[in-house]
Amino acid sequence: MIELVRPTVDLADSWWAMVDEFGHGTIHGSGYHARDRRVLAEPDAFEAWVDWLGRQEHPDEPLPPERVPSSYRWIVEEGRVVGTIAVRHALTPSLVAEGGHIGYAVAPGSRRRGIARAALGEALHLAARRGIDPVLVTCDATNAASARTIASCGGVLEDERDGVRRHWVRTGAPAAPIGPEPVETRAARLVPITAAEARAMLAGRTRRDWADGYPREDDLDAVRMMPPTGPDAWSPRHVVRRADGRVVGSIGCVGPPDDGVVEVGYGLVPAARGGGLMTDVLSGMVRSLEAAGLRVVAHTAPDNVASHRVLARLGFERLGSQTDGSEWLWNRRSAAGVVSDA
After folding, report:
1. Nearest Cα residue to 133 out of 103, 105, 102, 165
2. Which residue has the higher pLDDT, 231 or 340?
3. Would you tell me how many other CB atoms lie within 10 Å of the CB of residue 215?
4. Sheet with strand 2-5: strands edge to edge
5. Claim: this prediction has a pTM higher than 0.85
6. For 103-158, how does the pLDDT look when each residue is reduced to its tens digit (9 = 90+)?
7. Do 329 and 320 contact (CB within 8 A), yes or no?
8. What is the residue extent of each domain of the chain?
9. pLDDT digits (tens, 9 = 90+) for 220-259
10. Which of 6, 34, 269, 339 has a CA between 20 and 30 Å from the CA of residue 318?
11. 183-332 topology per CATH
12. Does the fold of domain 183-332 match that of domain 2-169?
């Protein structure tokens, strides 16, 4: 039986014994670098480092560039540290390509006993409590054991990039039912567009917190369909990126639900694409719609490969296309992994 514990000086001796097992190898999910060993060998420095690992869990903790808030845990078996694991609360472009949300390592002497699978399962529960769904988990293409571990925890392979296999895992994180309030995701706020903002967009006026290229023509089409009474739960929303407070796109429904089915539409300005933001945003929106008891569908152009990938990793299946082939219809699978009844 293993448990994930926060780093603590009480396990310092066991920690260093585990580090010795790795030799000069990288310990994924640890926040530790072998070059720091001489410094961290001092008890005061080690205590300060352990404290810093814990503070990274808080979103207001200042972090170096390219670092994101993370929950660091040590994998402990019968009081002994046998590995490390970290849940990253957000993705940067580099983490989308390699690294993902969860990094982990098990000491050589403790492998092949199911410890990695158990630890990854616990880390997925931790990610769910953080509202992260889906989770990206990566491994080297040559690491067949890690690939099997990820698959055993529900990982679905998206692709392989530069020798890195990229898997997505659903966590089933709970969501609040859709309403007129903003939808919160880990990387963005989805804020309903006001009537005044809609008028500004249609008049060609911009605001300082709107990214270059916003609104796009698709964003304008969305606000043209807003009800005259003002925004409601189904109206378009600004995608406000948490990293800088900029509006980088929009997401909303193509009208109110029809017989329990609602269609979602979305898009980002070019500069905001490719870093995993759309997956995060659409995941949050879809989960809120489903929490209201709705079935979610989407349409895409046949050549919009990036959108196809986003929908597929979130559990959508392509059902068919328009008779003229101009659009593809996608349907979100139910929680049981099958297509919901029409």
Report:
1. 102
2. 231
3. 27
4. 2-5, 70-77, 80-88, 102-106, 135-140, 164-169, 156-161
5. no
6. 999 999 999 999 999 999 999 999 998 888 889 999 999 999 999 999 999 998 98
7. yes
8. 2-169, 183-332
9. 999 999 988 888 999 999 999 987 889 999 999 999 999 9
10. 269
11. Aminopeptidase (3.40.630)
12. yes
Contact of 272 with 241, CB cutoff 8 Å: yes
- Strand order, beta sheet including 328-332: 183-184, 188-192, 237-241, 247-253, 261-268, 295-300, 328-332, 316-321
- Contacts (Cβ under 8 Å, ≥6 apart) of 322: 329
Going by CATH, does the domain composed of 2-169 fall within 3.40.630.30?
yes
Which amino acid, 256? P
Tokens standing for residue 30? 């640890």
The residue to which tokens 């039912």 are assigned: 177
Distance separating alpha carbons of residues 237 and 235, to the nearest angstrom? 7
